[in-house]
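Suppose a colleague, Dr. K., hands you the sequence of a protein chain of 232 amino acids and asks what its three-dimensional shape might be. Before reaching for any lab equipment, you can write down a predicted structure in token form. Begin with the sequence itself:
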Amino acid sequence: MSTILDTFIAPPCHDEIETLYRDEHLVLINKPSGLLSLSGKNPQNLDSVHHRLVQIYPGCTLVHRLDFGTSGLMVVARNKAINAALCQQFSQRTVTKVYSALLCGHLENDEGVIDAAIAKDPSLFPLMSICALNGKPARSRYQVVERFYHRQEKGALLPLTRVQLMPETGRTHQLRIHCQLLGHPILGCDLYGVRLLPGTERVPRLMLHASELHFRHPISEAWMNAQNASPF
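The predicted structure, expressed as tokens, is then:
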């Protein structure tokens, strides 16, 4: 049995968490890129979304997480009952999530579905892997918004595709590994292939943003249709 050793130390994040909506039951926030969702076991990784928000909303808990490099919408429960109700919506897949991303290269198709099971492997930590035998089902849809070229410092053109990604399941690193499987990794991804591509070495962040979140308020049952435009 492999032992997981997490040596990652998060650099300081000076960006603030933006509060988009709050009531006595829940809080909707815009998470900055470069901030952990939950504090790590290493005391040097204390700063996180939860660590900051629990100072303001004692007893609050995270319903879901975004990767360290991902920015965008998160819903935070202000008590255990609300957390349970929201988690049920996520587990029943009645929550709709839409992400904005920049992918390396030009996708051939305007839309499509990636259906590939994802597995944890402690020997590869923190990487996940595509594994039909031992993986959990994972399904993502994508839709192309635009294809364009980004001119770099020395004049070279980097082909990019702006897409909307709609994960139908919520596996760790799902969108990143599914885009890699497509052959078009997310720009700025340090785990799944992109750093090997010429012209991507100086990208300041992971170009992945949670731009839409649709769910029912657990008390009023009104639809919460949160939208937050991509910063890139």
